[in-house]
Design goal:
The protein contains nine helices and six strands. By secondary structure, it is of the alpha/beta class. The chain has a single domain, classed as 3-Layer(aba) Sandwich (Rossmann fold), CATH 3.40.50. Strand 1 (27-31), helix 2 and strand 2 form a beta-alpha-beta unit.
């Protein structure tokens, strides 16, 4: 083969890499996002992610419109302590004591909905376990189990467990890639304590779901 033929063959076989979209001007506001797992796919794709959590020293209830600017997408996972049906046996006692946890939880939900109303993002979603939040903001759009999206993980067994979770909002439903829930109710079995660490582990967004949600909402 002549050098000229070699160059022509090389050029013919060369496929330029598709140009990646510039997402740097698209802001994702991720509220109550301690671990950053839910917002990670957006961050990795070059979006401008603003990650807010009380444990990072940021309170979404104190943010102003000028603090944020325009919002392309909003993710929110308010603390579920006051809402989850897992704590239903304590609701009556909490009511008698003034319902401080419920009031605080609702104030975070309220902050989320105010941002949705004022910023009008292209998509938004609010996550919480099965419980009484629907009594305050209506019926959810969908529910999911972590194992239903385990196939999105590099290691599918990472999310091979159950924890029924509700989603409210305006978003495209993610594609499921289910795996067998061989770990059952792993979160309660392994992280059923009352320490801050176990609470953090229970509240972490399943990685497979985070990737699936990103794939459907860009």
């Amino acid at each position: 083969m002549s050098y000229a033929d070699y160059i022509r063959a090389k050029t013919a076989n060369h496929q330029p890499e598709p140009k990646k979209p510039d997402n740097s001007t698209k802001t994702i506001l991720s509220l109550c996002d301690y671990s950053g797992i839910w917002s990670d796919p957006y961050r990795e794709a070059g979006y401008n992610v603003i990650q807010i959590d009380l444990k990072h020293g940021d309170d979404c209830r104190l943010l102003t419109l000028d603090d944020i600017g325009s919002v392309y997408g909003l993710l929110s996972a308010p603390v579920c302590t006051a809402f989850s049906s897992a704590g239903a046996r304590h609701w009556k006692k909490k009511e008698e004591e003034g319902n401080e946890q419920l009031i605080e939880g609702l104030s975070i939900v309220d902050a989320t909905l105010r941002f949705v109303y004022l910023k009008k993002p292209k998509f938004w979603v609010l996550e919480n376990p099965v419980g009484r939040l629907r009594d305050y903001i209506g019926h959810h759009k969908m529910t999911f189990q972590p194992c239903e999206f385990g196939g999105w993980c590099d290691n599918p067994t990472e999310d091979a467990y159950t924890k029924r979770t509700c989603l409210w909002g305006d978003f495209k439903e993610p594609e499921k890639k289910p795996v067998d829930p061989v770990d059952g109710s792993k979160m309660h079995r392994l992280y059923g304590g009352k320490s801050e660490r176990t609470k953090e582990m229970r509240s972490m967004t399943p990685r497979g779901f985070a990737r699936a949600f990103f794939a459907a909402n860009q």
